[in-house]
Amino acid sequence: VILHDLVDTYDHAYELCERYITTNEQLITSRIRESHRQIRRNTLWVALYVAAVMAGTAALVWFFYASVVRPLRQMARDAQAFAASPGMPISPAEVEDELRTIGTHLRRLMSDVTSTRTDLQASRERLSQAEKLASVGRLAASVAHEIRNPLTSLRMRVYELQREWADHPIYSEDIRAVSEEIARLDDTVRSFLEFAREPQLALQSCSVAGLIDGALELCRPRLVENDIECRVGADVGALPAAWVDAQQVKQVLVNLILNACEAMPAGGRLTFGGRAVAVQAGRPLLQITLMDSGQGIAPELRERIFEPFFTTKATGTGLGLCIAANIMLRHGGSLELVESNPTGTCFAVSFPAVSEEG
Ligand code: ADP
Ligand code: MG
């Protein structure tokens, strides 16, 4: 009986041990499974974190590139393009080194600004000088106006005296001199007033040949007196109608013809030519050329002849060419010296034609 009890107890103990082992094994398996799950979860988290960090870094890099590097590059390129514009030497700097390039151009820009400031100061001074001159000009014009009236009465009185004393052995010569000087003064004052005022243009369609004939007609006595032969080229008649203020263009031509007469005291030839030179604002630009066979203009004086009061003549006013050039400029044309040499001088007067559309 005791042995039988022992065997029973042993069996029971064995069975308990078996169950313990099984339970343990189950526990271990479940723990291992749990750990695997944990590891997988952690791996996912780490992967997500790494991805987020990478995305953040990429965004930062892009932001830096877009907001700093790209504008910097653009600035460097712009600065180089600016430097390449005329008047500035092109620097050998490469675009790769943007900051250095920008630095170079920025310094150049600053020096440019300094020189611009200096220029601005200089032109301001010139402008105030011009304003002063303009006010002096206005004053001179009013003085000239005031001089004209007493001059007229002087002329009339001298004329009376001249009639009275025409045969006087001593006074007649003096009176003639006074009368001549008064005429000269009157001429200067008249020219000056013409120069100072800026009359409106009365534009109209007129024939170029008609303008030349009208001017020649006005100068006829002078041309005959100086023994000057005039020729008007066939090309003048072929020109289209001009769109000008006929009175004023005639005045320009008269000025040029009189100058030519004065350049040919012993006679000579005056030749007119004409051609269409260009198209300006839809209108053809016409040109009359005036060629004389006079003594010409010395090379060093050529650039001064359009200056007001520049004259080489004892009794000249020096205003003729200046006024004439001004009139042509207001027509949208020009008056130019084409050439001059000891055998003659050629001037060109340009002005618009009547536009083709009418
Ligand atoms: P002015 O005739 O009163 O001297 P202008 O303005 O008409 O003034 O002319 C300026 C100067 O240009 C003249 O004094 C003369 O020296 C020169 N000049 C103009 N036209 C001619 C010409 N056809 N031939 C030679 N010299 C000329
Ligand atoms: Mg003149």
List the helices and strands and how they pair.
Layout: H1 2-84, H2 98-164, H3 171-196, E1 204-206, H4 208-225, E2 228-232, H5 234-237, E3 242-244, H6 246-263, E4 268-280, E5 283-292, H7 320-330, E6 334-341, E7 344-352
The structure holds adenosine-5'-diphosphate and magnesium ion.
Largest sheet: 5 strands, mixed
Strand percentage, roughly? Answer: 5-15%
Number of strands: 7
Poorly predicted parts: none
Bound molecules: adenosine-5'-diphosphate, magnesium ion
Q: Strand pairing plus helix content: what structural class?
A: alpha+beta
N-to-C SSE series? HHHEHEHEHEEHEE
Largest sheet, spatial ordering of strands: 2-4-5-7-6
Count up the helices: 7
Please give the share of residues in helix. 55-70%
Query: How far is it from the N-terminal to the C-terminal residue, by CA?
Result: 149 Å
Mean pLDDT rating: 88
- Shape verdict: rod-shaped
Rg over CA atoms, rounded to whole Å, is: 50 Å
